[in-house]
Design a protein that fits this description.
alpha/beta; UDP N-Acetylglucosamine Acyltransferase, domain 1; 8-stranded parallel beta sheet; elongated
């Protein structure tokens, strides 16, 4: 049976796997499901309608599934947080449940949330992301697979960062950041995350070459987004990796309100 500290409060309506460990002064509400191999340290709060998969580690003073910080939120609505497997939530992390009936905040697998990082309501954080201390993703934000948000990086609501993006500490964006790019400063792209691309085991040299060409067409050819997409569409020999860059730019060009936030521009250097 679960190992529950005598000072913890666990609602009878919560479902805990047999080997879950719950530390001192934790609070687990009804309609919570916690999967095998999960460990909750002291003073953790897991609110209603939150599900954790397997082997998640939740450190002190973390709050999972709290009400969204949304003035339009109806507390009587049913909305959820879905957390995958193998995640680490360090001290003081906050994850908000979704706003909107039946909607969900989605946390994938093997994500590392460092101290005091935050994912807002309806956010989607894909597998393998790292959020360093104080990093924050606003409501409806979407962070792609393997991206790294450095310390105190802020991603505005309704904003997307593509997979394998890297970000400079204290930077922020209210515009969409394509896959494989580096966010540096406020709403500025410094270039491609060449180190991340080189380390990516599923990338070939041909993939990296095609991604560089997609970046050149988008940022250096002097084309509008629609023209850039058309030129990239003509490259019918591209593989999946460069195709993701092209499809991301296409989505930006076609995005409707409130996602029509535009493409994050390239940083200009003074000479």
């Amino acid at each position: 049976m679960p190992k529950i500290h005598p000072t913890a409060i666990v609602d009878p309506g919560a479902e805990l796997a047999e080997d879950v460990e719950v530390g001192p002064y934790c609070l687990i509400e009804a309609d919570v499901k916690i999967g095998p191999g999960c460990t909750l340290r002291n003073h953790v709060i897991v609110r209603r309608y939150t599900t954790l998969g397997e082997a998640n580690y939740v450190d002190s003073f973390t709050s999972l599934g709290g009400d969204p910080q949304d003035l339009k939120f109806d507390p009587s609505s049913l909305s959820y947080v879905r957390i995958g497997d193998g995640n680490t939530f360090r001290e003081g992390v906050t994850i908000s449940r979704a706003t909107g009936e039946g909607k969900c905040t989605v946390i994938g697998d093997r994500i590392y949330f460092m101290a005091c990082s935050h994912a807002g309501h309806n956010a989607i954080i894909e597998d393998g992301v790292i959020l360093a201390n104080g990093a924050s993703v606003g409501g409806f934000g979407h962070i792609g697979r393997g991206a790294i948000l450095s310390a105190h990086v802020s991603v505005h609501q309704f904003t997307r960062m593509g997979e394998l993006c890297m970000s400079q500490g204290n930077s922020g964006t209210s515009m969409h950041v394509p896959p494989y790019c580096i966010l540096a400063g406020i709403n500025r792209i410094a270039g491609l995350n060449t180190v991340g691309l080189r380390r990516a085991e599923d990338m070939t040299d041909e993939d990296r070459s095609q991604i560089k060409e997609a970046f050149r067409i988008t940022y250096r050819a002097g084309l509008g987004l629609t023209e850039a997409v058309e030129k990239m569409d003509a490259c019918d020999d591209w593989g999946v990796a460069a195709g993701k860059f092209r499809d991301f730019v296409r989505w930006i060009a076609q995005a409707d309100v409130p996602y029509n936030r535009g493409l994050c521009p390239r940083r200009r250097y003074r000479r």
